[in-house]
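Bench log. Compound arrived from synthesis this morning; before running ITC I wanted a structural hypothesis for how beta-L-arabinofuranose sits in the protein. Inputs:
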Amino acid sequence: MRTLLRRGVALLTGLLCVAVLTPAAARADNPIVQTVYTADPAALVHNGRVYLYTGHDEDGSTYFTMKEWRVYSSADMVNWTDHGVPMNLATFSWASADAWAGQTVYRNGRFYWYVPVKNRATGRMAIGVAVSDSPTGPFRDAIGRPLVENGEIDPHAFVDDTGQAYLYWGNPNLWYVRLNADMTSFSGSPTQIPLTTAGFGTRSGNTSRPTLYEEAPWVYKRNGTYYNIFAAECCSEFIGYSTAPGPTGPWTYRGTIMPRQGGSFTNHPAIIDFNGGSYFFYHNGALPGGGGFTRSVAVEKFSYRADGTIPTINMTTAGAPQVGTLNPYVRQEAETIAWSVGVETEPSSEGGMNVGWIEHGDHIKVKGVAFGAGATSFTARVASASAGGRIEVRLGSATGAVVGTCTVGATGGWQTWTTVTCPVSGATGTQDVFLRFAGGSGYLLNVNWWQFR
Ligand code: FUB
């Protein structure tokens, strides 16, 4: 990812410089993740945070070459914390390939992550289920075998307010099965939801698939109505939706949510309500080097119409507005990022993740940082196997006013951590903070966390 993204972001930065006075460009926070390609979003609200589960498109992919899944979380919809890779193909001893589109639900103190993977024994796509006590994992295979297998993909679990849970999945068909309360077994047999044109719209020119339904069902209930949001009419896909009076139908096609756009021939929806707002997640090819096999997850805020229908939602680079502000006076993970240029993340020897592969001129943007009356110092947990470098604390942009500079020396290793502190002056009110890195050539330093005082 590094070379591709660095080169592309330099281009993007150039374009943004041309439009430097355009507020939308300055605010651009979509796609959500800049450090790797991400695909197939699934979002979950838990204890005041949004957890975003994604797949990972390998750099330079020419197919859905996917080996692991990733988790990010946010309390404000713009600053997203990278929780790394809590699950990969090796989690499922019976899986051989294709870590494709999954989804996570919470029930009775546990998190269940349903994913499609290829079953080594049969060569077919099957649905696995992993479990964890934490939304960020690690996850383990809950049953040691496929939960269900019929060669189809894109599982989505939904727990109805009756307590009955359902698993939906399918491409080219649409299936459901009633999950038991343990969420890792089911009752009855997988059942096909009839793909009627009344239920799922009319596809043009494909008699073997008469309806618009393609894949990626996302089912939920709102104000007594069941919604099924899905990827429609490959290729390229748009996002459509249907509604029903019950969890298994009968469905009525309601139209387009997100038209075809964004440079990826697939799209993949997730919808949540968080903190009084409604949010629509999707993916596109918007990052440098991006396309149909190098996708990136993004989000838009939207409002349901009074009658419960969903308006057309277009992809933006601005993304969702920030919910609240970020507190700089508590420890913040360096991998909590609104936008970054040049950096990557990795597991830290101190737990969680750290930011690494930092070179001169790279930066991290943290949005809406509430300094109040003002900060007097900046502290960062850092490591460097080279000669180190500097962390410039800038406000407003990567070329904005420098309010503090911390010098980082050699620590003897990329995971040999020390704490540096430098004075800060002029950081008051609510600001977008840019940590810009400076120094010589090559990698300069790693950052695990930071905090103002
Ligand atoms: O990411 C692989 C596949 O592409 C997913 O399973 C589908 O939903 C499509 O996004």
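What the model suggests: The chain has two domains: 31-302, 332-452. The longest helix spans residues 2-18.
ITC booked for Thursday regardless.
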